[in-house]
Design goal:
The protein is mainly alpha-helical and 314 residues long. It contains 14 helices and no strands. Helix 5 packs antiparallel against helix 6 and helix 6 crosses helix 9. The two termini are 19 Å apart.
């Protein structure tokens, strides 16, 4: 196996293992009846929406690389996206590192610049997620406020914020003044990282970038909402319940390795606030997570295998 493949093989193998282990750990007695009676037409439409969001993300990425004079082949961008999500199933956030490494290995984009574009992309996605949270807060203020009041303690959050700010300030002062080799390397890396992040401000196709960003999150919402029609007990579910469950699921995916184990529980906890029965809620969480994860396992594995072949041919 080549060195390029070895750099990304371990996280991907872990992703496949966790995916298999998770599927084997599904509470069969509670979930299988819902899998049997599910409407797979709606599940298929949800998966297709997820697939379109990944293609759009790959295309959007090219807009960020353009200001730095890098032209990336679209197939490489697509395969890097699927490898990202596959790797994140094994090791949280390792996929972003591998995604930048794919560009470094096959498109000669410096790692720190490629990684910077990914950070900038995550900032844009975070702003859209906050917009969805804001809309949901307006529509379902009482529910969200009660959850925040029970889950968070303002004093602890304030103390943690002050401690983090002090640590960050000391770190910045050290990096600016120190002449050690480590500090110099970190400064070079940060300069490349900031160039990648600021590429959003320098791109020519800002409106196209905004369109793809909105399209990606529209597809996310659609794949979640349309999949609810696959479970008969969830027919007629309110938009407020969908939005709160979608937000809860999004945060679990971002904070864990692809939402393994916790995604269905987060969905069930969100639906519980609307007095939706537990079993269909958990079953929907598993159906939603399993369908999207199965797509990632298949397309991510194929991307991992086909990536070196495609670039060898080219």
């Amino acid at each position: 196996m080549s060195k390029k493949l070895l750099r990304i093989a371990i996280p991907l193998l872990l992703a496949v293992f966790f995916g298999w282990y998770t599927f084997s750990s599904i509470p069969l007695n509670d979930v299988i009846p819902y899998f049997k009676t599910a409407n797979y037409w709606w599940i298929g439409i949800g998966v297709f929406c997820g697939f379109l969001s990944h293609l759009s993300r790959a295309y959007r990425w090219q807009y960020q690389l353009e200001p730095m004079n890098y032209s990336v082949r679209f197939p490489n961008s697509v395969m890097a996206i699927f490898i990202t999500y596959l790797a994140n199933l094994g090791i949280p956030r390792s996929g972003e590192v591998l995604r930048a490494a794919v560009l470094t290995n096959y498109e000669d984009v410096p790692f720190e610049k490629g990684f910077g574009t990914i950070v900038g992309e995550r900032v844009a996605d975070f702003l859209i997620l906050m917009l969805i949270v804001g809309i949901t807060l307006v529509l379902q203020f009482d529910f969200i406020y009660s959850v925040l009041e029970k889950s968070f303690q303002p004093v602890k959050i304030l103390m943690a914020g002050i401690a983090g700010l002090v640590f960050l300030t000391l770190l910045i002062v050290f990096l600016k003044r120190s002449q050690s080799k480590i500090a110099l390397k970190v400064r070079v890396f940060i300069r490349g990282l900031m160039e990648g992040v600021s590429s959003i401000l320098r791109m020519r196709h800002k409106w196209a970038y905004i369109f793809h960003t909105l399209f990606i999150w529209t597809m996310y919402l659609l794949m979640f909402y349309l999949t609810t029609f696959a479970v008969e007990d969830l027919n007629g579910i309110s938009i407020g319940a969908v939005l709160i469950a979608f937000i809860a699921g999004s945060f679990t995916i971002a904070a864990t390795n692809g939402g393994v184990f916790v995604y269905p529980l987060a969905i069930a906890a969100a639906f519980e606030m609307f007095d939706i029965p537990e079993n269909p809620s958990i079953a929907f969480g598993w159906i939603m997570w399993s369908s999207q994860t199965l797509m990632i396992l298949i397309l991510g594995s194929l991307s991992f295998l086909f990536l070196p072949i495609y670039n060898r041919i080219k």
